[in-house]
Amino acid sequence: MEAERVVVLSDVHGVLPALEAVLAEPDVRSADLVVLTGDLAAGPQPVETLDLLDSLGDRAVWVRGNADRELVEMARGETGSIPDPIAPWAASALRPDQVEWLAGLPLSVVIDVAGIGLTVFCHATPRDDTEVVLVDSRPERWAEGFAVLDDDVAAG
Questions:
Q1: Mean pLDDT lowest for which of 60-64, 68-72, 125-129, 145-149?
Q2: How would residue 79 be classed by pLDDT, with cut points 50, 70 and 90?
Q3: Reported pTM
Q4: What is the per-residue pLDDT for 30?
Q5: I want to staple 145 with a disulfide (CB 3.0 to 4.6 A). Which of 35, 88, 133, 149 is the partner?
Q6: Bridge-partner residues for 62, per DSSP?
Q7: Dist CA 88 CA 33 (whole Å)
Q8: Could you tell me if 32 and 4 are in contact, meaning their C-beta atoms sit under 8 angstroms apart?
Q9: Gap between the Cα atoms of 84 and 115, Å rounded
Q10: Is the pLDDT of residue 73 over 70?
């Protein structure tokens, strides 16, 4: 997959008004691709948020985040309680097609971004949707978390 202009949206957490505001921005409207790097629906308006993101059609490239996985697990009755009080409600609000869509999302995608090269987009790290590597993490931690990569750039 190749793109000139790429916008990355992450951690929308079902907040529809904020998503609408971001999608209305000229730089977002003119982007070739909108890469959605997870944690999209776990919040107050999960159904509407996913419907709006789905309306982006082929411009949207989806990646699963930990909250997306947890919503699927809750909707399927595969998990116990989660500390987030909104998540169980959000999971119960999702339509079956939305649960299946979220369940099928990849952990990462690779896009050939013009002027940058092959870029891996993920929620946390390419190998785990909960693994946290921060700007102040030790270099060894970065190397460990991203050791699976052969590509030039990672965005999470």
A1: 145-149
A2: confident
A3: 0.88
A4: 97
A5: 133
A6: 36
A7: 31
A8: yes
A9: 40
A10: yes
- The residue written with tokens 């000139």 in the block is 4
Structure tokens at 63: 């990646």
Residue 100 makes CB contacts below 8 A (sequence gap 6+) with none
- The better pLDDT of the pair 145, 18 is held by 18
Helix boundaries (H) for the chain: 16-24, 26-29, 46-54, 66-75, 87-93, 96-103, 139-145
> So where are the chain's domains?
2-155
The residues near 142 (Cβ < 8 Å, ≥ 6 apart) are 133
Question: Residues near 59 by Cβ (< 8 Å), separated by ≥ 6?
Answer: 31, 32, 33, 34
Distance CA 14, CA 148 (A): 30
Separation between Cα atoms, residue 67 and residue 134, nearest integer Å? 19
Q: At residue 82, what is the residue type? A: I
Instruction: Please list the helix, strand and coil fractions of the chain in percent, rounded to the nearest 5, in that order.
Output: 35, 20, 45
CATH pick for 2-155 out of 3.40.640.10, 3.30.1490.20, 1.10.287.180, 3.60.21.10: 3.60.21.10
Q: Rounded to an integer, what distance in angstroms lies between the CA atom of residue 120 and that of residue 127?
A: 11
